[in-house]
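Dear U.,

For the methods section draft, I wanted the exact inputs and outputs in one place so we can describe them consistently. I've listed the two proteins in the order they'll appear in the manuscript figures. Please don't edit the token lines directly; just add comments below if something needs changing.

First protein:
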Amino acid sequence: MIRPAEPADFVRDPVLSIQGLVKRYSRRAAPAVAEVDLEVAPGEIVAVVGESGCGKSTLLRVIAGLEVPEAGAVRIGGEVVVDRRRWVAPERRGVGMVFQDFALFPHMTVFENIEFGIPSVPRKQRRPRAEEMLELVDLVGYGDRYPHQLSGGQQQRVALARALAPQPKLLLLDEPFSSLDTALKRSLRDEIREILLRTDTTTLLVVHDAEDVLALADRAAVMRGGGILQEGTPEELYLRPHNEYVARFFGETNVLPARPCEGGFQTALGVVSCPIAPSCAGAGSVRLCLRPEHFLLSDGDGPGHSAVVDRVHTVGLRRRVVVRLADGSVPGETLVIHAGPEPHLDPGDRVRVLPRGEFAHILGGVDA
């Protein structure tokens, strides 16, 4: 199962290529998937992320062959599996899929569940392959158990083993952590990523939690209303979101109205010193995105703009501090700032807020 590494400069065609994909559930309804283009490179782990109803699970089902699109094309391993002229049955697409509820057969043992996923393998070779898969997912000795005798995390690993057993060209994961508690989800994320990397498995997963994307994916696509708003690495989506929706999806952020000026941008916090994008040289108002960790917070004698602490929430050594500007220049608005343990702060304290302009990012439209 572990595939040899290839030279760093070796370029392979994408395992998954989607072009202009459209899927409607009725003629009058808005598209569940709207003109989606997406590629996944060999060995890459790509996440499709978005709020409920954005079309991400429908996209996965079309790729798997469980839904038929109205338009567009899907290629897997260079082969067209669906377009205007061709539709390949799910079992012939070379795709492995892990569902939200794991979809294990309750009347079958773990061995039997995995062997069920490899009908093309000669019968005598199925048990050795199943044993290999259990070793891969660290469940050696669990083969004779039934699903109800396993924890949620163990069931998830069995489902993954079954999906990987036929060595699929592409693995699809549909909300793989939705039924797990937070602590188990964090440990299982790391295990699954390690397994996917060891087997060089090309993977497309659907999740709704941005934390899953940051921890697991090499690249992500943010969906809304059936379309893709932005693609990029988790770092790009966090630090350089195209619009406010993407920015807020990947965590708390502060959006400051601003106008380009000499040396940066004029804001309610004064001039935020940062390079002006050429496209903004003659622009009117823009919006700057600054994450909570992109501010310096000091007591009343430090540099920056005067503000009043509204509330403080401590998590370990980090504090989430909500402040209001003391001069009321942003009525009704607050800033969220992540600070260390010093200085000690209580609601009502006066502080100084200094934005770190080198991290400021100019946002586009809210809805793109």
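Second protein (the one for the lower panel):
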Amino acid sequence: MSFQAGQGEVTLPFLGWGTAFLDYDNDCWKDLIVASGHVYPAVDKYQWGTSYRQQPLLFRNLGTGRFERVSAAPGSGLAVAIPGRGLAVGDLDGDGLLDVVINNIDSAPTVLRNVAKPSGHWIELRLVGDPASKSPRDAIGAIAYLTTGKVCQRSDVVSGGSYASQNDMRLHFGLGGATRIDKLEVKWPDGLKETVNISRVDTVVTVVEGKGLARK
């Protein structure tokens, strides 16, 4: 599917490790980011069309089943060649844009702060399972379905991410131009289905199983 999606040829010189789907511009479509790095430093001595340190790759979802590579602006995090080995995603600074941390072998991690402009609206969910039920408190296995207009998105609470990495377990939804959430349904790990009303966007909310939104 990678060639059909427009990611095949461009990734041939790269050796991917960390991979994550994320809506970096909050337009309702999940994009793709990849952390890469070769396993043999000696490749730099030969003209093999690759290198030991490699740039992170960010692909924008066009909404047609195809992706396009986001060009690396000079001096940006996407322009830096690093020996990537793992990748985790989360909103580190609370601005509603997903950031990325890349673990590098034999060197310090790389933090990619998301400064994408313009960006759409967003909502972030922290799900808490009911300890009295069969759901774990961290809600691993829960599925959230969020509807805005004709768009229905799904996001799952999972343990682990890409290679040796763990993403933020809060569920992030880009909303595009939508300013209201028409429906949020959560299917908890114990099988309970719960509909939750959310009146605001551009915020982080906590949903407790069987109790709806948690009060601050």
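Candidate sentences for the figure legend, describing the second protein: The CA atoms of residues 182 and 193 lie 17 Å apart. The chain is about 0% helix and 35% strand.

Thanks,
Y.
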